[in-house]
Amino acid sequence: MESPQSLSRTPVGVVVDGYSAGKFLPAAFRRLGAEVLHLQSTPEFLSTVAPPDLSPYLANVVHQDLERTAKELAEYAPVCVLPGQETGVMPADLIAERMGLPGNGSALSLARRDKYEMIETLRRAGIHCAHQLKSSDTQEIVAWAERETGYPVVVKPLSSASTDGVFICRDADDIRTAAAAVLGTYDIFERRNTEVVVQSCLQGTEYIVDVVRGPGGGRHVCGVWEYEKTDIGAKRIYDKDILLAPDSEPVAALVAYLDTVLEALEIRFGAAHAEIIMTPQGPALVEIGARLNGLMDPGFHDVCMDGNQADLLALACVRPDAYARRFAGKTMYRKRREALVYHGQTSLDGVVAAIDEQVLAEISALDTVHLAVPRAAPGDRLRPTTDLLSSPLRVFMTADDRAQLTADHQRILALKDAVFRLV
């Protein structure tokens, strides 16, 4: 490990909880001649997700209290403090604010993490959003749904991710089942679910909008993707993310709406990943994360667009003047190729004995496949897919025309379950 003194002329960034897409930030910083320090927000790494690889980092600092952590980080003279995943959002806000670094401040940190506070903040700002209630009382939830919105409604945890614990409820019995499945359990970030959020079910097509905001508040849209989903019982299963051209409908309306959301939630610096439904009344936020898109792959985004969130975020931190020149005001991505991300579904149920490398190689060899990633390993329990967490295969695909993608997608559907050999 290099000493802070030896890094006095090397820009250093801090990544809080480098799980998920945060793992791409060290390489992005190093491409700009900078280094990265890891800050662990919990005494132990989370047991519910794979631990971060610490090898690319200068050191791992375990967060204890604000003053002590700020003092320890100050020895490295960092240029930024960034969340690597959802659990890093609030610590990054606090520490960046304490150290006088670019960030979003801590006043609305909770609204950027808690799904109920998020929507209430938008409502107070006069922004179109779902009707909702927060409660631990199932009967109260049922009464509210039948009095205020009617069915269907959505029941979900306050601060989880990856569609963990999200249920579409079509009657009172569905609500009781969903509440029983969530209340008293722990989300994927090991936070106990003592309450749930129930919301009116927004009708329409759902979209991803990813952005980076740099110095001075300039906003660059890094990509807009349309979700294709399948409803299975009380679960809405994600099937494909399809890249849209920046001049296609309804991109302009989604981006204009997101700009109001960013201002309302005071997301003024860094990356953000938003999910928005285009309802008959206009765009409405599902939720937004003040961090990188957790499902992104930088190389894939570089191929099908003109950059990726991780590299652009690093540029905003390490070379703010260069970022401000390149992305002055409000700018949009360029679409270079057709692209989709396939989230494999399975009905298999059992323990994985092995990955069939020959089948995986056959998928990877398809002309449109940029990257195929099995998300279950030998020894893991494979269960029928109910959410993004239980999707066992992710395939990043890109081509010059949509017909190529469609043909290869059909081939992958025929092969996907054969990737996994069960005990």
Structural class: alpha+beta
Number of H/I helices? 12
Tell how many strands the DSSP assignment holds: 20
The share of residues in extended strands comes to 25-35%
- Sketch the major β-sheet: 9 strands, mixed
End-to-end separation in angstroms reads 43 Å
Radius of gyration: 21 Å
The averaged pLDDT comes out at: 93
Q: How helix-rich are the residues, as a percent range?
A: 25-40%
Low-confidence stretches: none
Question: What sort of overall outline do the alpha carbons produce when their principal axes are compared?
Answer: globular
Describe this structure in words.
- There is one protein chain.
- By secondary structure, this protein is of the alpha+beta class.
- The protein has helices at residues 25-30, 66-74, 89-99, 115-124, 138-149, 172-182, 251-264, 298-304, 309-318, 320-326, 357-364, 402-415; strands spanning 12-16, 35-40, 60-62, 80-83, 132-135, 153-156, 167-169, 196-200, 205-213, 219-232, 235-243, 270-279, 282-289, 330-332, 338-343, 350-355, 369-374, 381-382, 393-399, 420-422.
- Strands 9, 10, 11, 12, 13, 14, 15, 17 and 19 form a nine-stranded mixed β-sheet that branches.
- A hairpin with a 5-residue loop joins β9 (205-213) and β10 (219-232).
- α2 (66-74) packs across α3.
- The protein is globular.
- The model has no long low-confidence stretch (mean pLDDT 93).
